[in-house]
Write a structure and sequence with these properties.
Elements (H helix, E strand, L loop, with lengths): L3 H32 L6 H22 L3 H22 L15 H18 L3 H6 L2
Length: about 130
């Protein structure tokens, strides 16, 4: 059971995770494209950088305990879960993966699980009450 104190800590931890993920991805793409010109269309890079910056914005909102950050994260998590489900079920194929930190399937599974956890946590009453 979460207390008010632990819910605020949880929000801050997830805020920091979102900011770090967003910064890591966007900086990796920007640096990679400067060092080695993109082999993929620039729109793919633009999409990935834009979505990573959305993570940064969400993280900043959560860090400030803003309810819009929670709502945006829930929407974004739902979108990611839906797309990861489509990818994992082989109903769609995404060819924009450019960072090879881990296998694409493993990254998609981790992303799916993380965003499912996000949906559960950010729909808890105590978490909702901790955000203004």
């Amino acid at each position: 059971m979460l207390t008010e104190k632990t819910s605020k800590i949880t929000i801050r931890v997830i805020a920091i995770i979102e900011i770090l993920i967003g910064l890591y991805i966007s900086l990796s793409f920007i640096i990679a494209s400067l060092i080695n010109p993109p082999g993929r269309p620039k729109t793919v890079y633009g999409f990935v950088v834009l979505t990573s910056l959305i993570s940064v914005i969400i993280g900043i909102g959560l860090f400030r305990y803003k309810n819009w950050g929670r709502q945006f994260l829930i929407f974004f998590a739902g979108y990611v879960i839906f797309t990861k489900f489509l990818l994992l079920s082989n109903l769609v194929e995404f060819t924009g993966n450019t960072i090879k930190f881990m296998s694409i399937n493993l990254k998609d599974v981790f992303s799916f699980i993380y965003h499912c956890i996000i949906l559960i946590i950010f729909n808890l009453k105590i978490i909702k009450m901790s955000l203004n």
